[in-house]
């Protein structure tokens, strides 16, 4: 396959990107945000143009509560996409997450595939990214500092991808003393640390532990969007590894839905949180913020648009912002602080989950 060369990590990154653009990798269940219902305000007593989307996030002012999620890096094609993504993020004044920088740690020549983002976007918040297996041990803080410095990052995402590492043919499911490693990194780096799941969600119990060791933000990365078990299932099939493929199929839909994870984290910690995992539109962002999130993160939707060129990407982001603006208008919310207090009725599976986990759904529906 053209472009599939380099180190094992570089080849794996090429495979991930190719599969994300070509294959069916979505959960077969929803993210449960369709079970959250904003209350329509027939007389909003405001004009659409009165809506203000700006937000403060981790010490930075952003023009809208939209995050381009961590996705790619480590290959030539990824470098081009990161440049396109960064230019769009800069134009709209929204933060950008980078894909795992492990490839650049192993092969420093690949650092340029990540640095292009800062070159194209000098003023927006950019989030560096590394995984638990890479920060364990005495050298962990040094690795964390190096990936932050590599891209001039404003925050560091530590991704929690236990399922993917367990399914991946060459994975590293080594998560013992992971909390200890995160604590060491949080103490050593000079930027906020974001704990980020990659499609399985974060529970209230884990969120409390992360808050306790100095994590500054949680990206719930819930179930309902891209399934990394599905991605690795496709890779295993391509590699002729039938046993790994079957295991990937078994865990295709594993995880906690995004809506449930937002409720869990927001009711267990005081940390700002990012809603990600199958968000479809600006309305999902509005629902997420009403449930407790600070930002809404998009990955594959944005990746597919970026693969079609800068114009299609800008159109896609523009639509998201207008959808969010209209949702706020229809609920009578002039800004995000008002949206955080907007009433939202919870039904179906999300209601059942909240009840079983001791979260009072009336605190959302009876807001005034």
Summary tags:
12 strands, 8-stranded parallel β-sheet, alpha/beta, 12% strand, 368 residues, 18 helices, TIM Barrel, two-stranded antiparallel sheet
What does this structure look like?
The chain contains 18 helices and 12 strands. With 368 residues, it is of the alpha/beta class. It has one domain: Aldolase class I (TIM Barrel, Alpha-Beta Barrel). Strands 4-11-10-9-8-7-6-5 form an 8-stranded parallel beta sheet. A two-stranded antiparallel ribbon has the order 1-12. Helix 1 (8-22) packs across helix 10, helix 2 packs across helix 15 (310-330) and helix 13 crosses helix 15. It starts with 7 loop residues before the first helix and ends with a helix.
In a nutshell, what does this entry contain?
By secondary structure, the protein is of the alpha/beta class.
Largest beta-sheet characterization: 8 strands, parallel
- CATH homologous superfamily identity: Aldolase class I
Q: Tally the beta strands.
A: 12
Classify the fold: give the CATH topology: TIM Barrel
In spatial order, strands of the major sheet run 4-11-10-9-8-7-6-5
CATH class: Alpha Beta
| Average pLDDT number | 95
Distance between the amino and carboxyl termini: 57 Å
Proportion of β residues? 5-15%
The CATH architecture can be given as Alpha-Beta Barrel
Tell the overall outline. Answer: globular
What level of helicity do the residues show?
40-55%
Number of helices: 18
Order of helices and strands: HEEEEHEHHEHHEHHEHEHHHEHEHHHEHH
The low-confidence parts are none
Structural class: alpha/beta
Task: Reconstruct the topology from this structure.
Blueprint: H1 8-22, E1 36-38, E2 55-57, E3 60-62, E4 66-68, H2 76-92, E5 96-97, H3 102-106, H4 112-120, E6 126-131, H5 132-135, H6 140-151, E7 155-160, H7 162-167, H8 178-188, E8 193-197, H9 204-212, E9 217-219, H10 228-238, H11 242-250, H12 258-266, E10 273-275, H13 282-291, E11 295-298, H14 300-306, H15 310-330, H16 336-340, E12 344-346, H17 348-356, H18 362-365
Parallel strand pairs: 4-11, 5-6, 6-7, 7-8, 8-9, 9-10, 10-11
Antiparallel strand pairs: 1-12, 2-3
Helix pairs in contact: 1-10, 2-4, 2-15, 6-8, 9-12, 10-11, 13-15, 14-15
